[in-house]
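Record type: ASSEMBLY
Status: queued
Input:
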Amino acid sequence: MSESPFHVGRDQFHLAWDRAVEPVLSVASGSEVAFDALDASCGQITADSTVADLATLDFSRVDQVAGPIFIEGAEPGDTLEVELLDFTPGDWGWTAAIPGFGLLADEFPDPALRITRLGERIAEFLPGIRIPLAPFCGELGVAPAGEARSTIPPTELGGNMDTRHLTAGSTLWLPVAVPGALFSLGDGHAAQGDGEVCGTAIETSMRATVRLTVRRDVRVTAPEFRTAGPLGASTNTAGWYAADGVGPDLMKAARDATRRMIDRLGIEHGLAAIDAYLLLSVAGDLRISEIVDQPNWIVTAYCPRSIFG
Amino acid sequence: MSESPFHVGRDQFHLAWDRAVEPVLSVASGSEVAFDALDASCGQITADSTVADLATLDFSRVDQVAGPIFIEGAEPGDTLEVELLDFTPGDWGWTAAIPGFGLLADEFPDPALRITRLGERIAEFLPGIRIPLAPFCGELGVAPAGEARSTIPPTELGGNMDTRHLTAGSTLWLPVAVPGALFSLGDGHAAQGDGEVCGTAIETSMRATVRLTVRRDVRVTAPEFRTAGPLGASTNTAGWYAADGVGPDLMKAARDATRRMIDRLGIEHGLAAIDAYLLLSVAGDLRISEIVDQPNWIVTAYCPRSIFG
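Status: finished
Output:
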């Protein structure tokens, strides 16, 4: 990790995408900035937390983002290039099913919390189930021109993208909507699958280093990125389980596929349903297998076999 | 490829999933069957076809499937295990934009046809753009208990799944709905991306060998499968381009992501929009990046950089 002259501390966060938030730094285009970001609970969940602590979580403090950074010269219509240089997670993380939240919220009404010790490269998520770390930040975004926005849903300006392939080495482009762009990041994830089906990844504090450059020769209207290497290489080392959701509604198909993969993991590996649900959120992937054979589409839930023993 | 005692010829096809179709073979559970299957146009498109020939395509003959095979002992409620042993495509294939069909049908109203020579491992799809072959059958299914069904949409009994990861070495499980299961396959694809966005892959005739086994110890309610190895390993060898569709409707997000990746390929590689659309159908992937950050989901269109020169 290079030493960045600019640093954002863990207490320098805000709770909305809002042009009125005072920048914590103003930097020249091309500057490297290092962030020490709290986890998505804003430090409310600790390594000693139990499921009972979820009941008292203050949701108004969740999904805070560190920043914002004013990038000198950035103007509406420009593009902010975010080179993702390094992500170093903490030494533990948490994964939760939070009532009312997640793809199968109706079927998992009870809260659940799992604390995971993070090794340098691998986390043992459940006994004998080892997940390679592939750290990234779920939140990467810039401020909107109009009214302040929640940090929970992503938008065309980025935000809570929860996109697992935005790992170190990737380059992200975001549209600039206000002078200075006002870039922030947060929501450290040690590992996550495509979809983040239960609503949380392996959530962790994150030391993140990025380079921020104003580009006028690149135009984007919503997030685009380029990865440096293959996708999901750390789990894509052996075969996969797969279950299809088939029908005219992609959301329902995604739910069906996830539900059936949960059942499959119960049969094949004896996992309790809630454990399988959390596991798929941190290690399984949702892909759209076909979206053209009217009127039925297929969403497939994949789970890598390499993580099992 | 092993020599299978059972063989289905290219003239032994049918045009609906229908229990009334007479089986072409009756085999014991555990038998290997080799199919010589025509391409999805039922042989109407040839290596010399031009786009004008699309106008006279007889759609009532499209997406025929070879079979059906009666598997002795299979009963409703059982599971048919389909071990995918070998797929050998023909030496050429076609990819088309067909008016009214495909994810961006409204934006690509004109027909387009591309004929591609298939090498043993690689096809040059456009000048300098080389796509590794990863052959499979888009159609793999069994007959329904009730009324006959079209072969175009997939259902809980399989059919036109167009699932690119069902390559040789994979094992597929389908629910059995009628005595004998009545298994058929077709729609050979030399290469395809997750989504098959333009509606066609590199369509080709296919020699397919499968082993068909009745399982009573496995229960599925819709297709499930297990792959033997990593997913998409032939194109996942370097970095990827990615464009996000963000919003509350997964279908619209998938369209947005695909449209913007088409634009990106135009900028980066000078591709005409129609060429980029066909290219994404045969080599690009749609993944659901997140499906939990209410009310906005993200579908990401990925294109592998390894295919470019």
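Annotation: Residues 245 and 256 of chain B are 5 Å apart (CA to CA).
Annotation: The radius of gyration of chain B is 19 Å.
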